[in-house]
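Researcher: Structure prediction, please.
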Amino acid sequence: MPMLMPISIAIVEDDAGLAGEISEIVSDTPDFKLVCCCRNMAGALETIPPLAPDVVIMDIKLPDGSGIQATEKLKRLLPDTEVMIFTIYENTGEIFQAIKAGANGYLLKRAGYEEIVTAIRNLMKGEVPMTGEIARKVMQSFRKPQLSLFLQNDPSAGKLTPRETEILQLLTKGFQSKEIASNCAISLETVNSHLKKIYEKLRVHSRTEAVVKFLKNS
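Model: Predicted structure follows.
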C-alpha cells in the first residue's frame, strides 16, 4: 500500500513564542511536514511561493503588513494552497475580507492542539474550518440584498427553489434548523431535507460552507 504524502505546511506568525508552538504542533504530527516559518509579510511572499505548501497558517496582524493582503497575493500565485487565518481577533469585517481574499478557514489563536490539527486535516478534505463563534458572526451578518446578489452571481444558486431560497436566507441569518422549521411552519425533517438539497446544489457539505460560498459570491 503506497504511503501518503504528508501535508506540507507553512506558518506566518510574528510572535516568536506562538510561532514556536505551532511549529512544534506541526512537527510532532506524523502526517504533517513543516516547510517554513515566516515572521513577516515580506518573508512570506518571498519564501512560500517556491515551496508551494498544501496549507498556510496565516496571522492577520504582521509587522510589515496585513495577513489578508498576504493571503490575496499568495492565492494568486498558489491557487491550490489552502490558507487558514489564525488570529486573536473576531472582527466580522476582517473575517469577510479574509474570506474574500481567498482564505479557506478561520481559527482563533486560543484553539487547542486537537482543534488545530483537525482544522488542517479538514482543509485538505475541502471543508471550511471555523470556530463556532466565528461561524455565527458570519451567518448573522448577512442581509437580503446580499442574498439577491448571490442568487444572480452564482449559477448553482439559480437552481434553488423559492422554498430553498427562503431557507438559505434564514440560514445566513444564523437560524438553527428548529427555528427555520418554526418560521416556515414545516417539520424539522422537511427542513433537513431542504438543507440536504441546498448543500447538493451549492456543492457544499455544511451550513458554514454554504455561508462562505454565499459571501464569496455576493
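Model: The chain has a mean pLDDT of 83.
Researcher: Thanks, that helps.
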